[in-house]
Amino acid sequence: MLPTSTNNSYAMSRRSLLAAIGAGGALLALPACRSAVEEEGKAGGATQGGTLKIAQTADIAPATLFGHNNPNFTLARTVFNTLTEYDHKTLEPKPSLARSWQEAEDGRSITFALRKGVTFHNGRPFTSADVAFALENLTKDTTASQLKHVAQAITKVVEDDEHTVTLELAHPVSNLFDLFELLLIVDKESVDDLVKGTKFVGTGPFRVVSRQAGTGIELKRNETYWKKGSPLLDGIEVSVVAQSTSMVSSLRSGGTHLLVDVAPLDAAAIKGDRRFEVTVSDAHDSAFYVASNVKVKPLDDKRVRQAVAWAVDRERVLKQVLGGIGTVSSLPWSTSSPAYDKKKAAHYSRDLKKAKALIEAAGARGKHVKVVYNAGLPTNAKIAEIVQYDLGKIGLEARAEPLQAPDFLAKLQSGELPGLFINGHGFGQLHPATLVKGAFPFNADKNASNFDSDTYRALADRLWKAGDEAAARKAADELNDQLLDEQFVSDLVASSHTFTVSEQVRGLNWTMFDYLDLDRTTIG
Fold first, then answer.
1. What are the start-end ranges of the H helices in 139-260?
2. Closest Cα partner for 123 from 220, 223, 230?
């Protein structure tokens, strides 16, 4: 067996980078919650069987499975596997479909020893060719993924044998294992049907038996799953329930066991009821923001964008919309991120006098601005109301408009949102390079705001390719300064995804990208 390398000087460990940049700051301020490790431990002694019933506000989006998209949290890790998975405590990569790996000292190659005896749901054996296909698929122009830039840095994939594969890179990259955490290993023979949403073939603990678009999806236990003794559940039913309040009603009546990202204020209806609990993810992979399409006037003037940042009442968003789950911030990072800077995160706070002065200086008083939001997240409508109100206070004529999740995501990826836009973003919790090189609102090469800057691109590349701790620290510092100045994205609150569960549910787990891991989940 190949030894697992964890001390490559180029592939800096999470802890090393954390210490290098000086994360500082308190951990994310959250109400009482259960961690993934605590949840996993509760599966002990539980009996096998039963169907877990899950509700979420938006339908799964198969065409976006190769990237990170909230509606797919219930599908990605239940039907598919990845090469590695981060440990929640140490944030070091642990084996999954890859049982071990060896990194070159110069950071320009990595060799994986793949797990033997793994089969896809259709019975086909998993081999190194499937890894090669997954990486090739990610580099296609038609595939949207926040980790595409890492896959594109891989210059050659060598299938040494059926269960050994070597990846050669153009240069060392600091977020290589973020790719392996997100890279779903899919069946190459049915990938076109997967994107259409008609066939889902993976190696994961459950197989899809039926799907009705817009309504839900049904999964059954994979009897040949490679993790012996898992899964414990007989099956999973995921239902689409558009109204957050209806989700809570279903939970209270016993029709549902688990709610994904129910609006915190709606979840308040079960506060104090010992039959239910709101579990807050320890991945801290959720931040809420208002961003600007800089091609749309008056948002082409950064003074107007800065005015927006000064105007929005972040504390009100945190308390009235998110129920206190999170912390206000002017930066996109979780407080556990190595790029987090406590002082800079507090740069913007509500100051209507400053905001009005900037609007006057830019000649933008009375200008009309659309504020569109992703209606797939129940919190966004309430945030949009606050933003619309606050912008009115500084002299802008703002109008909030909802877009259904598929339309919003399509326009987000193409940079066609018509003004200000409100949504949640991830990728602030692991390696900073993943956010600035891949997340759709921030991607330095092409982002949803159409912000184009050689300086920004250079800083993102420096952070991505940083080969020593001092270089990483300096790049992160300069990058934070530019984000605060340009304000093409105005972050509001660093928060977390939530899973609201019945007391019957035990052993709930999730990945560091918040994909539900139900290998050891049971229903009491």
1. 148-152, 176-182, 191-196, 244-253
2. 223
